[in-house]
């Protein structure tokens, strides 16, 4: 895959010259394999509907050209129905942009730094809702007046005791800022403070509207590619929101456990089936809970691949998992069940589904919580690939973590996906017995 001729994609995601320790990108734009601008335009019929099956196969073969990656992702993530027309999609786009602008304005009324081109990295209030007059806070919320932030605090305290939800949201903003400062900083894109601010704005608005999960560490890694690929901030927000529909369960905490732990339990079961000796070895080392794999699942392998290769991996994952009903499922959830009449699309054809989804449909490969995400099988594929090294060199959990960390920049995204599909098929077959 990587040895043939192809155009390097690094120029689309430039790295700062002083950052010499970033993983090398393996993905190349290959004529005849990568989904090109011409091939993408050719899959639309006159009114705008999309032959999604052809698109999925092309993405699996060679990924998506960086110049159209954002608009293709909007379909893969369920932002739009592939059978919709150009006009229908434009109406949806404009409606969503207005909705985002409304939410952002609501947030700005509570904290005027939102949308100002700045962001905060220090807690603006205490846990009981009182203003924090730390000099750094006053400096960060100073919006060009002589008040040095005092006007904001006067307005804040004049409203009386703050609502618990507002306190929680305001306490989250500085954590988002700290994470934004650490996210993809090797990229030239983030040398501009306006881009950092855009990332902070999107995550802050999302934290306000998601009453269940809010913001958790790791979400900045998931959101960052969206604002790089989609110029309009609202479009980037909705792409991120759709991605979080898939992943928010990973971040949901009950106080006693985190949602991703359920996937780790499934990972344990899968490894027991496909590589029982490796599972026994990991269990002896105290790693039978597979917590060492939590980062891979939480941020979807962002740390194991270069920036460009992680995008390639994501789009292959989504193409393999693709379900044409995604748009209707998400719209129904957003509108409320009482408003979903007329949203249901045409019965889906198995040809419109990704390969992984087709395997699930044919074999009934679903747990009580629904189908397992392909990311669980991707982790199993990485473990299988490193099985010999783990078996012979790991003498403790620290060794396991080190061996897996050493995979950074050394994994082949396409090979990992192919391995995941094989393990999934094998797991379904053995689970039936």
β-sheet strand percentage: under 5%
Q: Widest sheet: strand order?
A: 1-2
Which structural class do the helices and strands define? mainly alpha
- CATH domain class name of the largest domain: Mainly Alpha
Q: Helix and strand succession?
A: EEHHHHHHHHHHHHHHHHEEHHHH
In short:
The protein has helices at 37-42, 52-62, 69-76, 86-110, 135-140, 150-158, 164-182, 193-209, 219-229, 233-251, 260-274, 276-284, 294-298, 307-321, 326-335, 355-363, 374-385, 387-393, 397-405, 413-432; strands at 7-8, 28-29, 366-367, 370-371. The protein has 433 residues and is mostly helical.
Written overview of the protein:
The structure is a single chain. With 433 residues, the chain is mostly helical. It contains 20 helices and four strands. The protein has helices spanning 37-42, 52-62, 69-76, 86-110, 135-140, 150-158, 164-182, 193-209, 219-229, 233-251, 260-274, 276-284, 294-298, 307-321, 326-335, 355-363, 374-385, 387-393, 397-405, 413-432; strands at 7-8, 28-29, 366-367, 370-371. The strands form two sheets. A two-stranded antiparallel ribbon has the order 1-2. Strands 3-4 form a two-stranded antiparallel sheet. β3 and β4 (370-371) form a beta hairpin. α2 packs antiparallel against α14 (307-321), α4 (86-110) crosses α8 and α8 crosses α9. The longest helix has 25 residues, at 86-110. The chain is globular. The two termini are 35 Å apart. It comes from Arabidopsis thaliana (Mouse-ear cress). Pfam families: RabGAP-TBC. This is Rab-GAP TBC domain-containing protein. InterPro entries: Rab-GAP-TBC_dom, Rab-GAP_TBC_sf.
């Amino acid at each position: 895959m990587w040895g043939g001729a192809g155009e390097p994609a690094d120029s689309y995601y430039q790295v700062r010259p002083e950052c010499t320790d970033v993983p090398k990108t393996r993905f190349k734009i290959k004529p005849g394999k990568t989904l090109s601008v011409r091939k993408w335009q050719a899959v639309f019929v006159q009114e705008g509907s999309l032959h999604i099956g052809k698109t999925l196969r092309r993405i699996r073969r060679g990924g998506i050209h960086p110049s159209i990656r954002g608009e293709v992702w909007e379909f893969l993530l369920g932002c739009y129905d592939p059978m919709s027309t150009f006009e229908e999609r434009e109406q949806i786009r404009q409606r969503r942009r207005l909705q985002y602008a409304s939410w952002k304005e609501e947030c700005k009324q509570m904290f005027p730094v939102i949308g100002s081109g700045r962001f905060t990295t220090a807690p603006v209030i205490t846990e009981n809702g009182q203003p924090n007059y730390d000099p750094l806070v006053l400096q960060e919320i100073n919006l060009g007046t002589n008040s040095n932030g005092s006007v904001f605090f006067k307005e804040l305290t004049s409203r009386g005791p703050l609502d618990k939800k507002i306190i929680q949201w305001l306490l989250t903003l500085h954590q988002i800022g700290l994470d934004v400062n650490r996210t993809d900083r090797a990229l030239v894109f983030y040398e501009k403070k306006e881009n950092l601010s855009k990332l902070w704005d999107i995550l802050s608005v999302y934290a306000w509207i998601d009453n269940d999960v809010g913001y958790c560490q790791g979400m900045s890694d998931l959101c960052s590619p969206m604002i790089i690929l989609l110029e309009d901030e609202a479009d980037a927000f909705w792409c991120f929101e759709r991605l979080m529909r898939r992943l928010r369960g990973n971040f949901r905490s009950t106080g006693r456990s985190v949602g991703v732990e359920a996937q780790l339990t499934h990972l344990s079961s899968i490894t027991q089936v496909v590589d029982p000796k490796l599972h026994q070895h990991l269990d002896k080392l105290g790693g039978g809970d597979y917590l060492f794999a939590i980062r891979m699942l939480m941020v979807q392998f962002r740390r194991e691949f270069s920036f460009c290769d992680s995008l390639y991996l994501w789009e292959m994952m989504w193409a393999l998992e693709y379900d044409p009903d995604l748009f209707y499922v998400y719209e129904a959830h957003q509108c409320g069940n009482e408003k979903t009449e007329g949203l249901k699309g045409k019965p889906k054809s198995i040809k419109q589904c990704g390969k992984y989804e087709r395997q699930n449909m044919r074999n009934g490969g679903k747990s009580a919580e629904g189908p397992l995400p392909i990311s669980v099988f991707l982790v199993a594929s990485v473990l299988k690939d490193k099985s010999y090294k783990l078996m012979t060199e790991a003498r403790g959990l620290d060794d396991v973590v080190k061996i897996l960390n050493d995979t950074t920049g050394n994994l082949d995204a396409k090979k990992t996906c192919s391995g995941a599909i094989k393990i999934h098929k094998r797991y379904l077959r053995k689970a039936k017995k």
